[in-house]
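Re: L-rhamnitol structure - here you go.
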Amino acid sequence: MSTMYELAKKKYAAIGIDTDAAIEQLKSIPVSLHCWQGDDVIGFDHDGPLTGGIQTTGNYPGKARTPAELMADIDKVMSLVPGKVKLNLHACYAIFEPGEFVDRDKIEPKHFEKWVKFAKERNIGIDFNPTFFSHPKVKNGLTLSSPDAETRKFWIEHGKACIRISEYFAKETGIPCVMNIWTGDGFKDIPADRMGPRMRYKESIEEILKQPFDKNLVKITVESKVFGIGVESFTSGSAEFALSFAASHDGVLPLMDNGHYHPTEVVSDKIPALLCFYPEIALHITRGVRWDSDHVVLFDDETKEMAKEIVRCNALDRVFMALDYFDASINRISAWTVGFRSWQKALLSALCTPNEYLKGLQDNAEFTKLMVMQEEFKTLPFGEVWAEYLRRNGIADDASWFEEIEKYEKEVLSKRA
Ligand code: RNT
Ligand code: ZN
């Protein structure tokens, strides 16, 4: 054990923190790694661009073009991050046989067999997302909330197919699958009817939920969003809509993406509010810069605050954590790696915070001391605990991971011209 870590451990022990226990605990907590950082949210089931309320920017060379490339890239990331990975797939990442095409309302578990093999070989679980965007059947910007019955039907069938696939993932891997419903449905300009689309959205999700499934195996979540690119004035799946839907439907959980609120709202404050009511909740962890820009997650204040809330609410087993961002302007493997490591850092830092002691100060109204101590703890030698966590995960404890990426870029990514 390094002497530096030994010293850090003592410092933490003095404030009642067992850093060895924190390290052990974090090792077993799954965090979902989004496959879509690897190819700018394109997938394999269509040739067109990304459309429907989200946007990637940048044209950094080397994006994955095939399932084999994407899997190799995910492997590279997994070799550079500590902690327990779960794989997050989107329906548009279905893998067809050469010459085969199956539309989204008809996809089956067999189109994800290769992903299941990939997950099983790595002993990881899979989360899933129906893809309600980048498709010709998005009619006038609407899917499940469209006034056109045929359009709604197509997307309802897609949702049901995705529940069947999610259940297949859970059964095959032995790990429950979180299936998240997000649509970009909305309007660019002021609508004349706000309730109609929302009633249709509600009824459509209810139709999807008629697909029988085991609620212990598949966790359905509904993700809200305040606005999107091209849907600045109205979204069907607003925050109130998603929360109320989850609250009133058995087995449905709310999913909060921290890029999906007004810029002065913080998800860290919403986490404990929802935990008062829901047995489980889900998160998309991202970094919005002025808008839902999906920048790479960093070890910044709000990221730390979200992790702190999960830990101090004793809710690590009640919050499904998934990364969700896509930066196409920098090396994608690096984007993935930095984001995953940042969230791991935030969790470890939260586990190394004397939360009970600080709560005590708050309850005793010792607000001066609370501020003083919170500031004191910020400069504890956390870097040494993080380095030890990396070592115990078999990961280099310095920045050499980036050299690996530079090498991979030279040898693999640069050849994908
Ligand atoms: C979009 C939502 C959604 C997507 C993924 C790809 O704003 O955050 O979660 O990012 O489904
Ligand atoms: Zn999201």
